[in-house]
Structure formats: structure tokens, C-alpha cells
Prior knowledge:
Layout: H1 12-22, H2 28-37, E1 39-43, E2 48-50, E3 58-64, E4 67-72, E5 78-84, H3 91-99, E6 106-109, E7 113-119, H4 120-129, H5 131-157, H6 160-175, E8 179-180, H7 184-191, H8 195-207, E9 211-214, E10 217-220
Antiparallel strand pairs: 1-7, 2-6, 3-7, 4-5, 4-6, 8-10, 9-10
Helix pairs in contact: 1-2, 4-5, 6-8, 7-8
Amino acid sequence: MPPQRDFIPFDIKCYSKLEDRFAALFEPRLINEVCQYGKLRTFKPDETIIDIGMRITHMPLVISGSLKVLTEDEKGDELLLYYLQFGETCAVTLNCCTSKIKSTVKAITETKAEIVFVPVEKMEDWMIQYASWRRYVLNSYNERLNEMVHAIDSIVFQGLEERLLKYLRNKAGMVKSAVLNISHQDIANDLHASRVAVSRLMKKLELKKSIAQQRNKIIVLDYKAD
């Protein structure tokens, strides 16, 4: 049961939505301030919410749905770093906000998503004012750093087939469906690999009955919903 509040919410609709999702993480007054100063927006799948070179003035806090965060090499080829879902934020964006530098990553919605954009000024105030916010930010840095280390490890130490199957399973978990509407080229872009290599390994995984393929659809056969 959410804790009782001793104030009138700034926006009762927003407060109720965030309280339902963040009561275990944030104090009631912090939830109220997120509603008061944040900007709640809804995005369709495959929308870019942060782009490389963008000046970051607000930090994204995912309310629902999922996003993927990518970076680019000198040739402009993309590399998937990590996914974000409910209750998470982007550590690289946090750093860009606090350091007042342009974004070095791109964030794209995987599914329909609701995101609250918190202004950097309030983010800094809350670091002093709210212990729960400090824990949240520090935990976010730690979790995203670990995910980036794992992404680098997979490139260096894992074969492409292992990376591909892990990618498909993770993606199914993010969209909560065994059926993925994605092309071989999209997968190749995310894995920083050639489409020919991905197509060859997809056929191999299909023969192993790890996946099934239809036109622009991939079915992860061992996916189990939570």
C-alpha cells in the first residue's frame, strides 16, 4: 500500500500513474515533483527520442515500454549498448546532462513508450534533497556500466552466433513476445555485423530449432513470458 501523503498532488492523474510504478523507489514528495517539473510524453515504436550530437537538457525516465540505446563508430555504423525499460534511465544521458555536453548515443523506442523528461536543474537539486534519487542515479550508473561492459565482452569474447541468439532472446523479453517484427538488416545494424553473416547464422539457428522465420518476422521458440 502506498504511503500516505501530507500534500495535494500537483497533477493527480500524473501522480497516480507514477505512484503506481515508483512508490517502491521514490518518496511521495519526489514523485509529486517529477510530475510538477517533468514533461510526460508518449512515443510510438521506432521513434528517436535522443540523437547523437543533441544537446541534452532533460533526463528520460521510462514509465512504460522499452528503448534501445546505441552508439556509432567513425564510419557511422551503429552498435547496440543496452536496453531500457520501466523505471530505468540512460546513464550516458545522465553524464551528458551533468557535464553539459552533447549526446554521444542514440535512443530509439522499441515499443510504444511513456517517458518523463526531467530537467537537469531539478535532477541536481534532487541529488541533494532526496536520498532515494541519489540511490536511483548511482544504481543507474552502475547497471548501465555493467551492461556496456557485457556488450563489449560479447563482441570481444563471444562468437556471432552466440551474440545473435542472446540478442533475439533479450529482444523478445523486452517486447514481451516470442514474435519479433525485425529484418536481418536491422539485426545486423544492432550487432555491428554484416547482413550476409546474420542471414547465414539465422538459418543455422532455424535448423537447430532455436528460432523460426517468416517474412520480416522471427519467432524465438524458447521464449517464455513472465
